[in-house]
Amino acid sequence: MGQPDAAPAIAGRLRTIGTAAIFLALLWVAGRQTDFSFVDLWTGANDFFGFFLRLNPDWRALSQIWAPLLETLQIAYLGTVFGTLLAAPLIFLASFNTTANAPVMWIARTILTLIRSIPDLLYAAILAPILSIGPLPGVVALTIFTMAVLAKLASETVEAVDPGPLEALRATGAGRNRMIVYSVLPQIGATMTSYILYVFEINVRASTVLGLVGAGGLGQLLVTYLNFFDYEGIAVLIIVIFAVVLLIDAASVYIRTRLL
Amino acid sequence: MIEFHDVEVVYPNGFKALKGINLEIPRGQFVVIVGLSGAGKSTLIRTVNNLVVPVAGDVRVDGKSVTKATGGELRRLRSGIGMIFQTFNLVKRSTVIRNVLAGRLGDNNALLSLLGIFAKSDVALAHESLQRVGIPEKAFVRADALSGGQQQRVGIARALAQRPSIMLADEPVASLDPPTSHSVMRDLKRISREDGITTLVNLHFIDMAREYADRIVGMNGGEIVFDGTPDEATDDVFERIYGREIDEEHDIRGAA
Amino acid sequence: MADERASGRAASVPPLPDRARRSIVLQYVIVIGILGLAILSLYALDLPSWSRVVRGLENNMLRLLRGFIDPEWGTAPLAITAMTETFFMAVIGTTIGAFLAFPLSFLGAANLVGGTRWAFPGKTLLVAIRTFPEILLAIIFVLAAGPGPTAGIMAMGIHSIGFLGKIFADIIESIDPGPNEAIRAAGGNQLHVFFYSVVPQVLPEFASTTLYRFEINLRAATILGLVGAGGIGLPMIQRIQFRRWDEVSMLLIVIVSVIIVVDAVSSRIRRRLV
Would you give the DSSP letter of residue B118? Predict the structure, then answer.
């Protein structure tokens, strides 16, 4: 029996204070480098709301919007479908309990990490001049991005699966593919569908703006409006984008809660 | 016929699970392996289908080496060896019949089975296996809706669907209550007799071994300490299998 | 022996129960439907001709790929400076988002405001905020307040409020009510409950989520420059437009390296936190 140790408590305190200090210093440096001050927060917020209040939507623009809107949804849909198809083999190669061997697993994981480090819009921006402006670079960009994101999410689920049935199937002499189909897929089916819907959400949000770099959809219309300073058109576009994303989000959440 | 030649197994952490096992099991024999946890029973059984790979020695099934087999050869050998597990290892969300059909996967058309399409003879065999273990009516029920004993029976049916010449059972009844345990053991013994399947069963307790085995193999510390008929498994044999470890390594009376 | 037995009994396969048959048919219908819709969409899209695509690939892809093996090192200093600015933008944006989300999240947490109905407006506000794609917010800020990293920071900040706020609210709703009760039983008031039970429980997860958002914001910050909101996006889009692929590769290498490192460090910290 004795006094509780004073040393560990102080060490913990110091660590917290130290972390906070480093963080504040980082913040300060960041502010200096980007010419940002907290005054800007206030003026920025003002400008933001001011902009909205000045918005005067010209609803006639709606007729121009339907076609690009459809294209936007198509891009998101195709990106999700193709991305999922391509992700399927990668997922199982990147998970330790379903992979063929160690080197293959590391290659798969590295590829996925690299692909995931580039944001979807950047893929679209780079692919647009290569594949010619239009929906194609959008679809390809979203496919690549979907592949990487889905593979990461899914492989975490696959690795957490009950290993018992896998062992049982291995014992019957089933090959790797059959083992996956019969013992892993049934366990992850519901979760996977949920992830795919989540990725579709992200893709819809992304595809609304991919056109900014020439990858089709509503974004392309946005560029046109910006170039012509058609603020009324932009206003309608913003509202439409907002509504679409909101709807898809809500639908996705609804389906996902029903599934699980 | 299963032969073990100087089989040694060392786990990655350095633990010697099997220290030079030599054993010969003729076709059709019902062998029960007993011993404490960690004695090497599970390891021994898993060297027969190479789920555990020995660092030395060789395990042969009907003259063919399982230890040295790889790839397609290994899968073919495994398809003739059925295995049942303490935790049943069924795919909980799949139906019973789908679980049993998984037993046919070692051995049939690649593409079709990936799509879930089995030959009619396979499906018939699966249903028949369920009938032989006494639960044909549960075919289309979800696996996790069954009781423990029924789930283990599905496991047996899955192994049966392989039409195996060898059956490995790793603590098949450890998760079941006594009456269900006896019922499952009875079924195992019956099927082994009917089909002439060489059966290796791991059990914790020697009383059940005495009741069902043709031959009892006792293990302790990675070695075989007894090999004989149930009649020969007297009480001092019991001590040899279970007692020595307690005296020397697990005696805590003198602990500080 | 088993063979004889199998052929002796008639190949008796009991029929599939209706429920099972229906679910199999449904699965096939769904899969075929999804793939069919995809093919239809592909047809309906305004896609360039195959020869155009091949030409584009020939002219550009090779140069881009070659650029990864032998990048234009001259661009490296610019890339690093721009990426640093991008990094700082993300730091500030995430911080703003987290700090403002903190109070807002409490308004959206059912167990703090007294029920799901009261939490509804708070939650809706948060969801509404995060529905805006960041790029769109960035465009608005550039239009409203002029180009530069500030626009990007504000865009990220506001979007993050929505994102983090919603997740913070979910975290708050998932805490263990036990300690709350204990404090109340010992005589504490609502404020005590708040500081001694709720906050300590949610802080680690808040921090972890914020770091996760930082990872995402860093990626977003790299492209906000495309619309003039600062960071490495502007130099990047310029070089793409001029087809300077070897310089693009250099920029990409810098971006990917920084993001991979940040992700790794962030994962480490997050694992320690929760």
Answer: -
d(CA A106, CA A101): 9
Measured at the CA of B168, the angle between CA B163 and CA B174, to 5 degrees, comes to: 125
pLDDT 10s digits, C132-191:
888 888 888 888 778 888 889 989 999 999 999 989 988 888 888 788 888 878 877 777
Closest listed residue to residue B50, CA positions, set B168, B222, B157, B201: B168
pLDDT of residue A149 exceeding 50, the answer is: yes
Q: Do C56 and A131 touch (CB under 8 A)?
A: yes
Determine the residue among B93, B94, B128 to mutate to test chain C binding: the one whose Cβ has the most chain C Cβ atoms within 10 Å.
B128
Please state, in angstroms and rounded to a whole number, the distance separating the CA atoms of residues A82 and A79. 5
Decide if B117 contacts A182 (C-beta within 8 A). no
Q: Does A177 touch chain B (CB under 8 A)?
A: yes
Q: What is the residue whose two structure tokens read 């950047």? A: A122
CB-based contact B79 A172, cutoff 8 Å:
yes
Asked if the ipTM is above 0.90, the reply is: no
Cβ partners under 8 Å of residue B186, min gap 6 = B212
**Amino acid found at A244:** V
Q: At A50, list the tokens.
A: 């001011």
- Structure tokens belonging to residue B255: 């602990």
pLDDT tens digits, residue range C246-261?
A: 888 899 999 999 999 9
Q: Give the DSSP letter of residue A184.
A: I
Q: How far apart are CA C11 and CA C6, in angstroms?
A: 8
**Cβ B110–A177 below 8 Å, yes or no?**
yes
CB contact set of C229 (below 8 Å; sequence gap of 6+): C138, C141, C142, C147, C148, C149, C151, C152, C155
State the pTM of this model: 0.82
Q: Yes or no: say if B89 and B156 are a contact pair by the CB < 8 Å rule.
A: no
Of chain C, the end-to-end C-alpha distance in Å amounts to: 59
Element (H, E) at B49: none
Residue with tokens 């192994």: B159
CA dihedral (B111, B112, B118, B119) positive or negative: negative
Q: Does position A177 have pLDDT exceeding 90, yes or no? A: no
